[in-house]
Amino acid sequence: MVKQKKLNVAVVGGGWAGMSVGADLADNKVPVTIFEASKTLGGRARAVDTSEAILDNGLHILIGAYKKTLSKIKQVSEESQKTEVLRLPLNLEIHPNFSYRASSLFYPLNLMIGLLNAKGLNTIDKLSAFFFIFLIPLLHKKKSISEKTVSQLLHQFYQSHNVKKYIWEPICLAALNTPSNIASARVFLSVLRESLFQGARSSDLLLPSNDLSNIFPNKAKAFIEKNGGLVLTSTRVTSIEITDRGFIINDGRTNAYTHLILAVAPNHLPSLVRSLPSIKKIIKKVENFEYQPIVSVYLQYPKETTLPKPMIGVEDSVCQWVFDRGTLLGQAGLIGVVISGPGKHETSDNKSLAMAVHRTLEREFGFPNFLWHRVIREKKATLKSSPDRQDIGNDTDQENVFLAGDYTESEYPSTIEAAVRSGEKCAKLILKNERF
Ligand SMILES: Cc1cc2nc3c(=O)[nH]c(=O)nc-3n(C[C@H](O)[C@H](O)[C@H](O)COP(=O)(O)OP(=O)(O)OC[C@H]3O[C@@H](n4cnc5c(N)ncnc54)[C@H](O)[C@@H]3O)c2cc1C
User: Fold this and answer.
1) Bridge partners, residue 403, by sequence
2) Each residue of 40-99: pLDDT tens digit?
3) Pocket lining: 265 vs ligand 1, CB cutoff 6 Å
4) Is the ipTM of this complex over 0.95?
5) How far apart are CA 207 and CA 35, in angstroms?
6) What's the fold here for domain 291-383?
7) Centroid of ligand 1 to alpha carbon of 232 (angstroms)
8) Whose CA is nearest to atom 5 of ligand 1?
9) pLDDT tens digits, residue range 199-209?
10) Domain boundaries in the chain?
11) Is 419 helix (H, G, I), strand (E, B) or coil?
């Protein structure tokens, strides 16, 4: 293809990866156009406007180690990011038998004292957890870890039943969205290392206090447009053509793009790149990906109904994590429940699942009858983070075509942070190679 003197970049996909790359390019005054199929920006982390309330397609948990995400939110926001997320020192409650709260002492003593004071663990449990935590930075570098699952790793390092049940397995499911018996030990250790060994606030929990589209994607749109870019929603890309003038999208002959960034979920990639034969090798890998589901159940209770904490786990129940949207987003009485990974809940109809969730909340917290419910099922929420997951980078064999998305960061589970990192990398690749 003839190299254009002036850059003009097309980004397909307005999820967190696409909006990150768009923000970085616009910040560097590179003309950029984002094409998003849906009318709402945010992809798998987006607001869902229902007749009853503004919900999210999934109740997301962020952590202090999401450094790129936090700086991206800051880059595009005029207000402080404090209004977008509630930051809490690492605080895990698995009702009714376990609770952990990082103390207010300095790092890393705060985390250690938290473990010493944890409710639901005996001395042997605590010693086994300390032993494992100290090994994390060393284990992370070991090659032999690559083929192991999280369960094998925990077994090898003598983690007690309670430490697995209350600490490592819930963290594994929340961070990797993959059960520990099939989850990658390498990726699990990466997450632990980044959250426990990268400074005082990396282990903080960041709970959204705005809807997911408003936390970043909508603000990124305003930022991109203020800096001369264009964000087209409700615009699905159905054809990409390579011509001498550049990439032509959806037969828009007046506009040719010098660079193309494909920021769609991996399952949407194959149909999009039929006209780009050099990407075939990558597509073969992508077609072998396996996915994990997440179901979100929302129940609206009378306005005075609250949880004892903004986020609580419930032991041995259908409710893995329960969120109080009243405390977090000012949606009084609205409770959201996350059910990650595969399980019996997948075959329940929405009404039965909502009733099962309600019965747990009624039993554990004395909740009254609910007023309405919504169930949102994401069958391909994230990639299965297993030891055999294939690596895919951001560059491709097709000149000037790059891939952005949570699946391109093999050291990290498919999360918002992975999506944002990938976007930043794509922008760097373009800016590094081109003078404009
Ligand atoms: C229910 C749920 C819960 C989750 N919980 C967490 C969590 O707690 N913490 C966390 O960090 N992560 C979580 N994740 C994962 C996180 O949401 C994703 O990793 C991240 O949003 C992926 O972003 P992305 O930009 O890579 O891809 P996507 O969000 O999939 O974005 C791709 C975009 O491309 C668009 N698109 C596709 N095809 C076309 C086309 N032909 N033309 C134009 N546009 C197109 C799509 O509409 C979409 O907007 C969760 C995900 C789900 C679904």
Assistant:
1) 262
2) 999 999 999 999 999 999 999 999 999 999 999 999 997 755 678 999 988 899 999 999
3) yes
4) yes
5) 29
6) Polyamine Oxidase; Chain A, domain 2 (3.90.660)
7) 17
8) 60
9) 878 999 999 99
10) 9-78+210-289+387-433, 90-203, 291-383
11) helix
